[in-house]
Predict the 3D structure of the following.
Amino acid sequence: MSVGEKIAAARKAKGWSQENLAEEIRVSTQAVSKWESGKSEPDKDHLVMLSGLLGLSLEELLADRPAPVFDLGSPYFNPDRMYTYVKAKAQAAGLKQTLAALPLMRDKHGDAVRDGSDVPYRVHPLTLACHALAMNIVDDDVLASVLLHDVVEDTDTKLEELPVGDRVKEAVALVSYNTYLKKGDDRDPDRKDEIKPLYYGEIRKNPLAALIKCMDRCNNLSSMAAGFSKEKMVKYVKQTEKYVIPLLDVVKEVPEWNNAAWLLRYQMITMLEAFKRLL
């Protein structure tokens, strides 16, 4: 039996009409009718209420429920095309730091892949650069920063080796955990959790670093379902709400980034709310 058929059978066994059940759980009669006909399904909260009212456990209600089948596509884009696109934009706008950052980023990340996948790591910084351009941010400091934001943390590159100015170096340093960690602690997740208040507190002092971190988190949220465990996803959602969303107030301090701040807030919050309902 489907979920709807079980609801209908249990309702009738109680001698209730659809109107009676609708009144009990404060939904429309039409909603109950759609559930029972299979045109829609109750959400999690209504399933819990139905379970109590109809005397069926959630297990009984959902047993033999067919699992949805989706054709899973990749949430990633072609790195070579993105590289060419960013390079062309940088050349047209005369962005010297970005043009220097592109080959360094590609060479330093090399054949590294993102955790839990076979996706080349360079896809991540290139996606951030394309995201910035899509938000009409054609800014040498911003594009160079997003391209290099993980180079110091994840490769053997030292901050002073970056072919960029001091503003970009400062932003990269602020978003790199190893700036705050002692040698040997950089792969200790518990240590990273311990320093998060310091880490995000320092980023809040720098609008460029705040923008980079928000764009970084937006991209990580969009792809976390492809490589995160459920436990890590729950933790990531909570940390994003606590630490990252407030950074958007800092981003808005730069007038020309107001539109970007709105779009990033919209993108992150809609993803967070969707994940919270599914996890």
Observations:
- The domain at 79-278 is CATH 1.10.3210.10 (Hypothetical protein af1432).
